[in-house]
Amino acid sequence: MAVTATGRRIRKRKLKAEINVVPYIDVMLVLLIIFMVTAPLLNLGVDIDLPKSNAKAVHAEQKPVILNVYPDGTYGLKLPDQDKVAVSPQRLVEMAGAIHRQDPAILVLVAGDGSANYQNIMDAIDLLREAGIEKVSLVTDQKQGPE
């Protein structure tokens, strides 16, 4: 061993060739908790206030295509097993026509907001007819209270 002028021994430290991962684990756990708390708060949809009716529910073997009509006259299209997407009237005709050509028997539902102008809902139905879809059903909520 080497000795300094004051008589102290100099120790040669052996270098460690390993990474201390404990701080990384702590950061990952904090991020995991943050994402677990914020994930349920992310609501990407827009609620629609559907009109009330005493009509019976429609039961279908396959999942329907749902066209949402919002109060401002915009449209949202929800295809089976996919998320809802905003569409323009021209894009709606293109997509609905392609869906109809793929499966002519597919069930198409129009979910018009209760506060939407009736003309906007009729325009949406006309666009679906322009795409070749003749059978369209309207979506309502169950009426509450005395009948």
Structural summary, described in words:
By secondary structure, the protein is α/β, with parallel strands linked by helices. The protein is 30% helix and 20% strand. It has 3 helices and 9 strands. A 5-stranded mixed β-sheet has the order 6-5-4-7-8. The protein has a two-stranded antiparallel sheet with strand order 1-2. It has a two-stranded parallel ribbon with strand order 3-9. A hairpin with a 5-residue loop joins β5 and β6. α2 (89-102) crosses α3. The longest helix is centred in the N-terminal third of the chain and has 17 residues, at 22-38. It is elongated, with a radius of gyration of 30 Å. The mean pLDDT is 82.
Features:
two-stranded antiparallel sheet, 147 residues, alpha/beta
Proportion of helical residues: 25-40%
Distance between the termini: 99 Å
Largest sheet data: 5 strands, mixed
Can you write the helix and strand succession as a string?
A: EEHEEEEHEHEE
Q: How much is the radius of gyration in Å?
A: 30 Å
Number of helices: 3
Give the structural class: alpha/beta
Report the uncertain regions. none
Molecular shape = elongated
Strand arrangement within the widest β-sheet reads 6-5-4-7-8
Fraction in beta strands: 15-25%
- Average pLDDT over all residues: 82
Number of extended strands: 9
